[in-house]
């Protein structure tokens, strides 16, 4: 059974990410303003489409955690609670998925000395870009691109002058996804500089899926939760083959635009397998 305390009119007003963007995000970067009400929380983050939903759900449903979900979208529930738009009385320990921060990622820095744990999930850009282009809404991709990737468009891509004149519709979904990935993933370098190892754990999604019996217990040790082998049963390998669906041209662009930042970020991983 899910336990939560919310103001019903708030849920009705904001029941999707478009409304969240219009009514909450548009007010500025106050997306974590209620976090201090939830000490010892676990924040699962990283670039969108990187497996953060899977991991945050496993943790939330673990023994010792409180399940606060309401509505159809548990990430949106977290965003509404942490922004203060939905009033929630703390009732235990929480795991919040916070990938939605985007350009407001510096809000994490307000909590360097606050008792939280942050897990940043890296994922190879082939899988992420494929998922953004073919399995994600145009609204979500455009929002992430504008927040984190638009300023990175390279002059050598002919579409840039069209973007300057006519706007976002003249950038292909594929390029939006590539630059959104680079912009969002690059945030981890600054975050890693600010937070000590006892507060921040950086993992790779593919490592988690391929070595779940070894890496998942490490994650639970980091977040100070008792690990049970049954948690690993919720991790599936079916999402590892997305790169095979990309064309050679698409792979070449990802190699050029995304892979360098991914390789640099992998140097920050918090473990050795």
Q: Give the SSE order as H and E letters.
A: HHEHHEEHHHHHEHHHH
Strand content bin = 5-15%
- Work out the count of structural domains: 1
CATH architecture: 3-Layer(aba) Sandwich
Tell me the radius of gyration. Answer: 18 Å
By CATH reckoning, the class would read Alpha Beta
Name the poorly predicted regions: 1-11
Strand order of the largest sheet: 2-1-3-4
Structural class: alpha/beta
Average of pLDDT:
92
Determine the number of helices (DSSP H or I, runs of at least 4 residues): 13
CATH topology: Rossmann fold
Roughly how much helix do the residues carry, as a percent range? 40-55%
What is the CA–CA distance across the termini?
37 Å
Question: What does the overall shape look like?
Answer: globular
